[in-house]
């Protein structure tokens, strides 16, 4: 079943079109990566999928129902977002912030119950944030705060999680731990993950499919092997890269080529000719 589907979506903030004719669908339990240069429309597309912006053209459906039929809190029961910017204006404790993830499931007549606190505790354990449960969120580092927002999204118990450069502030241990956690939830609990990332190698490693955006349009979408190729990267990012097979899993691995270092290519001991 298509859990998220867009058909002919177009969007503009003012006069310039930022997204054009975006049609794709994500199956339940899929791990989809969205890559593309700065300004190609990735964040805008996530906001349209989350119902923050209405498309100017085309339609978005969630669970095969037009998103316009849902109220905001109905969408929040299905979709959680981990935003790019982890700054929080008010001085809530970490636990309070994670507990906010439960609010779409509460109502005027339903307050937090023991089960909500258990879900919150589990989300904090999964993101390594329990040690600072009682601290003010504003006292944390950018990476720690980001993990708290990830915990809040997990506490929401969504069907789909939208990640916007969510690992940008994380050190490599927490970056890998986070993607491993997402992959586990994706496999064990059929959580659908849609992630915007600049890290093409992480996208290759973890995503079932990758969508490459270029200037507001889908340039290509498919398996990492189909999309992460040197000609595609060159065409869209205007950058020469080497793409070879990752020795761990055979998936495409991108190596950046700085012009100033290109004369050191002779030091390469690679047996196979790199794909340029
Ligand atoms: P990406 O996430 O790929 O970097 P964005 O979706 O953030 O791209 O932006 C796509 C385009 O829309 C850019 O040209 C950007 O300047 C423009 N844009 C983004 N947000 C706004 C906004 N709030 N108002 C006007 N233009 C915006």
Write out the distinct hetero groups bound to the structure: adenosine-5'-diphosphate
Question: Helicity level, as a percent range?
Answer: 25-40%
Low-confidence stretches: 268-273
Q: Give the CA-based shape.
A: globular
Series of secondary-structure elements, N-terminal to C-terminal = EEEHEEHEHHHEHEHEEHHEE
Helix/strand/pairing class, anyone? Answer: alpha/beta
Number of helices: 9
How much of the sequence is in beta strands? 25-35%
Report the span from N to C terminus: 38 Å
Provide the spatial order of strands within the biggest beta sheet: 6-7-8-3-9-10
Highlighted features:
single chain, 276 residues, alpha/beta, six-stranded mixed beta sheet, four-stranded antiparallel beta sheet, globular, binds adenosine-5'-diphosphate
Task: Describe the fold and architecture.
By secondary structure, the chain is of the alpha/beta class. It is built from 9 helices and 12 strands. The chain has a 6-stranded mixed sheet, sandwiched between helices. Strands 2-1-4-5 form a 4-stranded antiparallel sheet, covered by helices on one side. The radius of gyration is 20 Å and the shape is globular. The two termini are 38 Å apart. Residues 268-273 have low confidence and may be disordered. The chain binds adenosine-5'-diphosphate (ADP). Residues 13, 18, 36, 38-44 line the site of adenosine-5'-diphosphate (ADP).
């Amino acid at each position: 079943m298509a859990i998220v589907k867009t058909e002919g979506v177009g969007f503009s903030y003012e006069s310039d079109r930022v997204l054009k004719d975006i049609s794709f669908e994500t199956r339940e339990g899929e791990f989809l990566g969205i890559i593309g240069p700065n300004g190609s429309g990735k964040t805008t597309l996530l906001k349209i999928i989350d119902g923050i912006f209405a498309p100017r053209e085309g339609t978005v459906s969630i669970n095969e129902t037009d998103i316009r039929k849902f109220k905001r809190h109905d969408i929040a029961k299905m979709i959680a977002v981990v935003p790019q910017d982890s700054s929080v204006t008010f001085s809530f404790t970490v636990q309070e912030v994670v507990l906010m993830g439960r609010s779409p499931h509460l109502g005027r007549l339903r307050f937090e119950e023991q089960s909500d606190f258990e879900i919150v505790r589990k989300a904090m354990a999964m993101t390594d944030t329990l040690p600072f449960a009682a601290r003010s969120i504003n006292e944390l580092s950018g990476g720690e705060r980001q993990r708290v927002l990830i915990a809040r999204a997990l506490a929401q118990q969504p069907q789909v999680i939208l990640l916007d450069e969510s690992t940008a502030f994380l050190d490599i241990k927490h970056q890998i731990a986070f993607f491993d956690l997402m992959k586990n939830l994706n496999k064990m609990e059929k959580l659908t993950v849609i992630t915007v990332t600049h890290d093409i190698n992480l996208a290759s490693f973890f995503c079932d499919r990758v969508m490459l955006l270029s200037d507001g349009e889908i340039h290509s979408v498919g398996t990492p092997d189909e999309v992460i190729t040197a000609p595609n990267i060159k065409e869209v990012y205007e950058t020469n890269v080497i793409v070879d097979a990752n020795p761990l899993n055979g998936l495409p691995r991108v190596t950046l080529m700085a012009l100033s270092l290109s004369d050191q290519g002779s030091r390469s001991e690679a047996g196979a000719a790199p794909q340029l």
